[in-house]
């Protein structure tokens, strides 16, 4: 029932969801992740093109979801953070690893993980989650 | 342009109405509002209905036609207004604008939501339809989760405490005891809030408004018609504004830009400011949101909402009574109905005659703030006795 399990939704967002490609206004330099096709500053004068984000950022705020929505029940409790990307914009994402390790101010980097599954034998959706970036080689996507 | 007055208010009890349908609830509220105005349905020229998600909650779309049909109002135009949890106030604003434009003289604005037919996890997912499906819902965020992110940011930036947030729920429950329409008429303590189950850290169950069935309606008339009614309450200003759909697209999540813009527009239209208000109904879907609301509406300085609550300013008899009838927390939050219920409660306050512990004495003006999603829509309404 939740539209978050839609296959076309994940497919059409694959560039941004899997490869962290956002967009950038060539006119004023504003960057957007998730990508936007219209620059909020320049509107029709803005020329917006794809822009590769580095995928590095810092946790600005976080929560631990204990009452999960349909499709995420088995994952709870899980951490969700508001991540300020190094490019200046922010994005919401799940943080993997122990929920005890999640804290504001910690740096994070993206990892490729399972996001949801439609029932016991349904489609499995993958995407980016985030792990605490302790400077080690890590498990880069 | 004509002035606009409210001449009738009505609502169902807000509750888990297992035995009653969306149709039953909206009809009861509409009939109660018309009865209060001593008007027959044949006088109503248009209907605006706030409803967030009847399609997902009960599988029924075409909600405005359903409401007009069930209430026997055909063939007048019936329009559904949707802005998530701000759908009710959006219906009110639409009715107000329709009378202001000169097109109609008597309009009903209603709101209704039937939420308890869905099981809990489905209801959580449905409410999350107010957020960004592709980038928030898709990663497992919930509405409590979004406001938890806001709460922690506010705590980090301004030193707002868990206790101050709990005091919002305590205040609203203390008031709701005296409201016969409220879902939870029971006092709670700060300890109760802090010790209730964690939903999304740092927010516990008693920081959150409940899942509720209910409907509310008000009757609006033009100035010309208001003369026929004994106790009209005047609409002095209405402001509506929008912000980014996703929380993460905002530069600063400790304020709501849509609230500030809507409040500015409403204050300007009314020619009044925060100091002129005697009471406020604000959108305490989560306790932190009442703290942010009193800041963004201008009742205290930015970051001092927690202290404002702690000092007792929001209590009945305090500097600015907030949610004197119980708020979303105690009254319940049938999402599409809430914005209309807030306005109905301000009308009741300005008329006088509420139970003594929750009647704001000598109240002449009140302000309502209804918020959709995590702040992507805000509607501010200012009402006055003259
Ligand atoms: Zn630009």
CATH class of the largest domain in chain B: Alpha Beta
Residues in helix, % of chain B: 25-40%
Count of separate structural domains of chain B = 2
Strand order of the largest sheet of chain A: 6-5-4-7-8
**Largest sheet properties of chain A:** 5 strands, antiparallel
CATH architecture of the largest domain in chain B: 3-Layer(aba) Sandwich
- Unreliable stretches of chain A (pLDDT < 50, length at least 5) are none
CATH classification class of one domain in chain A: Mainly Beta
Side by side, the strands of the main sheet of chain B go: 3-2-4-7-1-8-11-10-9
Task: Spell the H/E element sequence of chain A.
Answer: HHEEEEEEEE
CATH architecture of one domain in chain A: Beta Barrel
- Specify the overall morphology of chain A: globular
**What bound compounds does this protein have?**
zinc ion
Separation of the first and last Cα atoms of chain B: 16 Å
Question: Can you describe what's shown?
Answer:
The complex is a heterodimer of chains A (141) and B (386). Chain A is mainly beta. Chain A has a domain at 55-133: Beta Barrel (OB fold (Dihydrolipoamide Acetyltransferase, E2P)), CATH 2.40.50.840. Chain A contains 2 helices and 8 strands, in the order ααββββββββ. Chain A has helices at 7-12, 14-19, and strands spanning 21-25, 31-32, 48-52, 57-65, 78-85, 90-95, 107-117, 124-132. In chain A, strands 6-5-4-7-8 form a 5-stranded antiparallel sheet, with no helix packed on it. Chain A has a 3-stranded antiparallel sheet with strand order 2-1-3. In chain A, strand 7 and strand 8 form a beta hairpin. By secondary structure, chain B is of the alpha/beta class. Chain B folds into 2 domains: 4-119 and 212-233, Peroxisomal Thiolase, Chain A, domain 1 (3-Layer(aba) Sandwich); 132-210 and 236-384, Thiolase/Chalcone synthase (Peroxisomal Thiolase, Chain A, domain 1, 3-Layer(aba) Sandwich), CATH 3.40.47. Chain B has 14 helices and 11 strands. Chain B has a 9-stranded mixed sheet, sandwiched between helices. A two-stranded antiparallel ribbon of chain B has the order 5-6. In chain B, strand 10 (365-372) and strand 11 (377-384) form a beta hairpin. In chain B, helix 4 packs across helix 14 (335-351). Chain B is globular and about 55 Å long. Chain B starts with a strand and ends with a strand. The A-B interface holds A 1-4, 9, 13, 34, 60-73, 75, 78, 80-83, 89-94, 104, 115-116, 127, 129 and B 120-122, 124-125, 128, 133-142, 144-145, 148-150, 152-153, 156, 197-203, 246-249, 253. Zinc ion (ZN) binds next to loops of chain A.
């Amino acid at each position: 029932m939740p539209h978050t399990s839609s296959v076309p939704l994940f497919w059409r967002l694959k560039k941004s969801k899997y490869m962290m490609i956002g967009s950038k206004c060539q006119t004023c330099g504003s960057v957007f992740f998730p990508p936007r096709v219209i620059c909020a500053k320049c509107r029709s004068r803005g020329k917006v093109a794809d822009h590769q984000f580095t995928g590095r950022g810092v946790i600005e705020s976080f929560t631990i979801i204990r009452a999960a929505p349909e499709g995420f029940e088995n994952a709870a409790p899980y951490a969700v953070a508001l991540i300020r990307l190094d490019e200046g914009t922010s994005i919401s994402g799940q943080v993997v690893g122990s929920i005890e390790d999640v804290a504001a101010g910690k740096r994070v980097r993206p990892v490729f993980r399972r996001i949801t599954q439609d029932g016991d034998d349904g489609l499995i959706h993958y995407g980016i989650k985030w792990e605490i970036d302790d400077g080690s080689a890590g498990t880069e996507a | 342009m004509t002035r606009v007055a409210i001449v009738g208010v009505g609502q169902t009890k807000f509750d888990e109405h297992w035995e009653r349908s969306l149709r039953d609830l909206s009809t009861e509220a509409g009939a109660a509002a018309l009865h209060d105005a001593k008007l027959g349905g044949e006088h109503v020229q248009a209907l605006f209905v706030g409803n967030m998600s009847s399609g997902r909650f009960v599988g029924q779309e075409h909600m405005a036609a359903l409401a007009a049909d069930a209430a026997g109002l055909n063939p007048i135009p019936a329009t559904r207004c949707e802005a998530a949890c701000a759908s009710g106030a959006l219906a009110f604003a639409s009715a107000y604008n329709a009378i202001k434009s000169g097109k109609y003289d008597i309009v009903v604005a209603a709101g209704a939501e039937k939420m308890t037919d869905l099981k809990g996890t489905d209801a959580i997912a449905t409410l999350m339809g107010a957020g960004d499906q592709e980038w928030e819902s898709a990663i497992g965020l919930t509405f409590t989760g979004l406001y938890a992110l806001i709460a922690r940011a506010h705590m980090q930036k301004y030193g707002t405490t868990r206790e101050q947030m709990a005091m919002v729920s305590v205040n609203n429950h203390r008031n709701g005891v005296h409201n016969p329409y409220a879902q939870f008429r029971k006092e709670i303590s700060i300890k109760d809030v802090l010790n209730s189950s964690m939903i999304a850290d740092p927010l516990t169950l008693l920081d959150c408004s409940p899942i509720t069935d209910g409907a509310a309606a008000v009757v609006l008339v033009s100035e010309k018609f208001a003369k026929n009614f004994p106790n009209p309450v005047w609409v002095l200003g209405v402001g509506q504004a929008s912000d980014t759909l996703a929380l993460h697209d905002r530069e600063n999540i400790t304020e709501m830009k849509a609230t500030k813009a809507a409040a500015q527009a409403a204050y300007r239209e009314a020619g009044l400011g925060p100091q002129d208000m005697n009471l406020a109904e604000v959108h305490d879907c989560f306790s932190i949101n009442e703290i942010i609301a009193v800041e963004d509406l201008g009742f205290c300085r930015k970051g001092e909402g927690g202290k404002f609550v702690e000092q007792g300013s929001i209590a009945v008899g305090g500097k600015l009574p907030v949610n004197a009838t119980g708020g979303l927390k105690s009254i319940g939050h049938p999402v599409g109905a809430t914005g209309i219920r807030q306005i109905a409660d301000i009308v009741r306050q300005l008329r006088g005659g509420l139970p003594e512990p929750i009647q704001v004495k000598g109240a002449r003006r009140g302000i309502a703030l209804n918020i959709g999603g995590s702040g992507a829509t805000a509607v501010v309404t200012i009402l006055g006795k003259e």
